[in-house]
Amino acid sequence: MVGVVACSSVSSIKALWETRIRRIQEEDEEQKRRTVRGGATGRLSVGLWEDRAVLARLKQKLQTEDGRLILRIEQEEWKSLPGCLVQLSQVQEWQIHRTGLQKIPHFISSFQNLMVLDLSRNGVTEIPKQIGKLTRLRELLLSYNRVQFVPEELSCCDSLERLELAMNRDLNQLPDQLRNLKNLQHLDLSMNDFTSLPDCVVGLPMLEWLDMGGNRLQHLPEDIHRMEMLHTLWLQRNQLERLPDSISRMKSLDTLVLSSNRLRDIPPLMEDMSNLRFVNFRDNPLTLDVTLPSRRTKTEDDDEDADEDDREMFGREFMQTYIQESRKRAYAVLNVHCVRQTNDDSSE
User: Fold this and answer.
1) pLDDT per position as a tens digit, 63-92
2) What SS3 string covers 286-318?
3) 3-class DSSP assignment, residue 236
4) Which of 121, 247, 282, 296 is the most exposed place for a label (fewest CB within 10 A)?
5) Which residues of 270-293 are buried (b: 16+ CB within 10 A; e: fewer)?
């Protein structure tokens, strides 16, 4: 009987200890879970506090001009824009310059009221496809960045009137879909790596102002006259050796800059471009050396030498004089040839 009682006591003690051990283990596990939850909550609280601090900082950059809400950041380091910025989606204009910004955030599509996106002079390398969601965007200014590729989705920005992509260096092509930008009037593609004028540019129906200076253009398209609304064309510092005769059919063109190319002649048909007010042929190896007669008198200042030089190279007068002189010399050569042919026939 004693042995049975002793055995029962040992079993009870063992069961009690096992129960206590399980309880301690459960309490340890619960404590660990609480610690983990507490840590996550702590991190969440810190992240929330940081977002609030950044958002407060961004709100200080808001300005109102002419009834438009503008986010303006100048010369501060913002290599990326925080997600909390979407809370300011009512902003109508971004003016962010010299910040080192490297990427346009994908949440840009949340800014449906955006009319001007000016990120000039940063380090932006790409334009996200989400840009096509901005149907109210009128101006996209990305000059002096590192953009190498323009997405076709940009053609969905139906309201776009001004596009500036100057000085992106490696940019050398545009998607053909950009011809669908029916309201685009101003396009700056200067100081890039284009070797030809993109077909989509020629097809822009409302384009009035185009700068292709500082590229590597070797020729102009024969159908350039299709740009019926174009009044200003900058083509300086390229590699053009000739101009197509069709350029004379650009009836709206009043400013044409062709300095620092490789032109050797001026198409005779350009003589009839009555709307052309300003034309610049400076620093081209033109075949003929044409000098306009001086308009100065002895009483005028010597400072007008520069004005005379400008008159020769900038004015329509120089172009017309060059064409007329070229025609005279061509007639003279033809007459000499005819005389020689007549003499040869007579001697026979």
Assistant:
1) 999 999 999 999 999 999 999 999 999 999
2) CCCCCCCCCCCCCCCCHHHHHHHHHHHHHEHHH
3) coil
4) 296
5) bbebeebeebbbbebeeeeebeee
